[in-house]
């Protein structure tokens, strides 16, 4: 289903919004609410509806079923796989007005949020309670919880804290058939059969929409200290990771190329970490809870230099310095955005990263001799972001066509290494046709069966993740 079956009347829809939600139809609103950060597809929604409550979402879903109308959920619109793009006359359900923190329980250490709560809002709330919400990424200032959960967002602290999924104590959802389900209700232990909450996390809104989430919080980290190391070889990154990981609990282990830093520096005032120029860099973070931990870290650093893996390094002496060093990594994506990058978000098991990296790198060097390649990623989780930048004088369509001709080679390697074609960005429209490189036919058939149970009329975010038939 791609568009409304009968003539759509915004007023009829608005009359169902009894808690103060509203409907927008102005061209500017359609353009901004109908797309995400992918910019591949032209937004073309029929309207945008901004509900205020779960009951209003339920009314919208029931209305859409009656009208045979497709719905697309919209959060902070920071997605990179076109999971929240409305390009086919759909009704966008935007969660901006469902942005309340509803409840907090200090002894359970859980906080109940509406789906439109912004990641940073939750992080700040946790801090006010002297606690910590550890899922973090560069788009934390605009991404919303509902979108984070629908894509099971990861980010820069996964090595220590896991993905969004690991922090969900409960969910309230409206299914595609218009039922409200309350899943898990904040329980730590609940072995009563299928955990339906997990289907909605990473489900990209194809089964139903998350309207509320009860999130776990943890203790705040102390003495976070950042090291940036210059490396002379891609594969040394893993030797360095192992050396540090054997002795320290890292809270992050990221890597990026010299080209990535150059883009950040052209885009913003961010200093080089040190004078020695290195082809690749690793950024690692740990809690320096004592002088002993710092000494240990310095000792490992020296060993890495002696082994010839590390060319130079810097360690933060204050929170402000740590934040500056993080900018080198966190601002990469925004700095290359104007070059309309073709994105790959690949993962393999950590032990297989060195070989995998080398194979992918040699295919990429051979197949894209005239394109600029930017490597970076959460390498401590086996997650690589490979961005191919569009030459300024090439048409967008021609550029994407050329990049797609190499996909079978790249994803063929991913398949051989039993990796994933989408580590943390979801599938959406962009990666849908490549799902078979990571999931078997039997798995995809089961997914389609599940979709039919929750969304019998196929109105929930159609065309994303899997096809209904
Ligand atoms: O732009 C990208 O390819 C990655 C974006 C984000 O996941 C990051 O790690 O910065
Ligand atoms: Zn990432």
TrEMBL record:
Record GO biological process: respiratory electron transport chain
Pfam families: FAD-oxidase_C, FAD_binding_4
The entry's keywords: FAD, Flavoprotein, Metal-binding, Oxidoreductase, Zinc
GO molecular function, one term: metal ion binding
Catalysed reactions, as listed in the record: (R)-2-hydroxyglutarate + A = 2-oxoglutarate + AH2
InterPro entries on file: FAD-bd_oxidored_4_C, FAD-bd_PCMH, FAD-bd_PCMH-like_sf, FAD-bd_PCMH_sub1, FAD-bd_PCMH_sub2, FAD-linked_Oxase-like_C, FAD-oxidored/transferase_4, Oxid_FAD_bind_N
Domain of life per record: Bacteria
Keyword Thylakoid: no
Cofactor(s) annotated in UniProt: FAD
FAD-binding PCMH-type domain mapped to chain residues: 41-220
Record-listed E.C. numbers: 1.1.99.39
Family of the protein in this entry: Belongs to the FAD-binding oxidoreductase/transferase type 4 family.
Subunit structure: Homodimer.
Protein name per the record: D-2-hydroxyglutarate dehydrogenase
Organism (species): Halospina denitrificans
């Amino acid at each position: 289903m791609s568009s409304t079956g009968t003539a759509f009347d915004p007023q009829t829809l608005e009359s169902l919004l009894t808690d103060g939600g509203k409907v927008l139809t102005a061209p500017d609103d359609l353009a901004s609410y109908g797309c995400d950060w992918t910019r591949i597809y032209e937004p073309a929604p029929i309207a945008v509806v901004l509900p205020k409550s779960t009951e209003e979402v339920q009314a919208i879903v029931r209305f859409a079923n009656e009208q045979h109308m497709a719905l697309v959920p919209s959060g902070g619109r920071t997605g990179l796989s076109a999971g929240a793009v409305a390009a086919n006359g759909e009704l966008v359900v935007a969660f901006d007005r469902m942005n309340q923190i509803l409840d907090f329980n200090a002894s359970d250490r859980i906080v109940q949020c509406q789906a439109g709560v912004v990641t940073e809002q939750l992080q700040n709330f946790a801090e006010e309670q002297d606690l910590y919400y550890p899922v973090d990424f560069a788009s934390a200032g605009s991404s919303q919880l509902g979108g984070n959960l629908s894509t099971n967002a990861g980010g820069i602290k996964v090595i220590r804290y896991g993905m969004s999924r690991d922090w969900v104590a409960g969910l309230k959802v409206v299914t595609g058939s218009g039922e409200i389900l309350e899943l898990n209700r904040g329980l730590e232990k609940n072995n009563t059969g299928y955990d339906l909450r997990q289907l909605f996390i990473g489900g990209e809104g194809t089964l139903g929409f998350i309207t509320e989430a009860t999130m776990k919080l943890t203790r705040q980290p102390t003495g976070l200290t950042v090291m940036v190391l210059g490396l002379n070889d891609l594969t040394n990154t893993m030797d360095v990771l192992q050396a540090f990981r054997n002795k320290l609990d890292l809270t992050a282990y990221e890597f990026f190329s010299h080209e990535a830093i150059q883009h950040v520096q052209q885009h913003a005032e961010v200093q080089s970490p040190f004078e020695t120029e290195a082809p690749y860099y690793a950024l690692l973070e740990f809690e320096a809870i004592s002088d002993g931990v710092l000494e240990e870290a310095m000792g490992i650093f020296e060993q890495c230099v002696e082994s010839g893996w590390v060319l130079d390094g810097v360690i933060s002496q204050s929170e402000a310095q740590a934040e500056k060093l993080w900018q080198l990594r966190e601002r990469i994506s925004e700095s290359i955005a104007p070059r309309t990058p073709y994105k790959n978000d690949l993962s393999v098991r950590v032990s297989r990263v060195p070989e995998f990296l080398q194979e992918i790198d040699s295919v990429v060097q051979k197949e894209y001799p005239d394109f600029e390649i930017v490597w970076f990623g959460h390498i401590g989780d086996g997650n690589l972001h490979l961005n191919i930048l569009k030459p300024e004088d090439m048409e967008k369509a021609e550029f994407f066509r050329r990049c797609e001709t190499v996909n079978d080679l790249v994803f063929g390697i991913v398949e051989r290494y039993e990796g994933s074609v989408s580590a943390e960005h979801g599938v959406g429209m962009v990666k849908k046709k490549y799902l078979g490189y990571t999931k078997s036919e039997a798995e995809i058939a089961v997914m389609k069966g599940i979709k039919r149970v929750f969304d019998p009329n196929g109105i929930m975010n159609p065309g994303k993740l899997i096809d209904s038939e």
